[in-house]
Design brief:
mainly alpha; 8 helices; two-stranded antiparallel ribbon
Length: about 240
């Protein structure tokens, strides 16, 4: 059994009395940006969620509270700094001590109640307008009307001071059909453009929501138990 599993299962890591801010008294930079460096301190709360606690150093390796905390979680093969009266000697020692002092109770879960969707950009709004314009004079896929073609040919012939011929009608009818096809092709282009904008917007909005909820992407987990614990809820939901 790994030390990680043993200490979490026994309630040693995350079973202390200090919140994240409280760890600052032992040199933890609780305002540090999330990272996976050697001195990055990550804990797991009682819900199994990873929590970034800050960056630590070895400046307080001789602190008696840290030495006692390390002894509480150490395995039988580790140096008992507490009984030997020696300082903590590695970043692993410091990490174990800090996680023992930390209280990993459930963090307050964020919700989307106070989330506002990102505004649509100019390209998105233009795509919406172009799509709606296709319906200004009816459905863009509607068949052209032979009656309308006849009336248009008749009106043009009259305006030109001549009688309408069969050829006038057939030419107008061909133009109207061609116009109907072009109108439908234009509609499909505008529809596809809007679909692309909507898909991009949905993806970006999803990422904004994930960030708002402090969603954490896949960490670099070397311990199989850590990996299982990280994704246990997802596994249980589909098992």
């Amino acid at each position: 059994m790994s030390d990680t599993k043993r200490n979490y299962d026994a309630g040693i890591w995350g079973g202390g009395s200090l919140d994240k801010q409280g760890l600052a008294q032992y040199g933890v930079d609780v305002n540090a940006a999330e990272n996976r460096g050697e001195n990055a301190l990550w804990g797991r709360n009682s819900s199994g969620q990873e929590v970034f606690l800050g960056n630590f150093d070895m400046a307080q390796a001789g602190n008696k509270d840290l030495i006692a905390a390390h002894a509480k979680q150490a395995n039988s093969n580790e140096i008992d700094h507490n009984s030997q009266g020696s300082d903590l000697s590695s970043t692993g020692d410091m990490k174990g001590a800090l996680l023992t002092l930390w209280n990993g109770g459930d963090a307050e879960k964020k919700t989307l109640d106070d989330y506002t969707d990102r505004p649509k950009d100019e390209d998105h709004l233009a795509a919406e307008d172009a799509y709606q314009e296709n319906f200004k004079n009816g459905n863009p896929w509607a068949a052209t009307s032979a009656v309308d073609s006849y009336q248009t040919a008749f009106d043009r012939a009259t305006a030109a001071g001549k009688s309408m011929t069969a050829n006038d009608y057939l030419m107008q009818r061909a133009d109207d059909k061609k116009g109907g096809v072009n109108r439908f092709i234009g509609y499909l282009g505008d529809k596809n453009r809007l679909a692309n904008e909507e898909q991009n917007y949905a993806s970006e909005n999803f990422m904004d929501k994930a960030k708002h909820l402090d969603f954490q992407g896949p960490p670099e987990l070397d311990d199989p138990y850590d990996t299982y614990s990280k994704y246990k809820s997802d596994i249980d939901s589909i098992a």
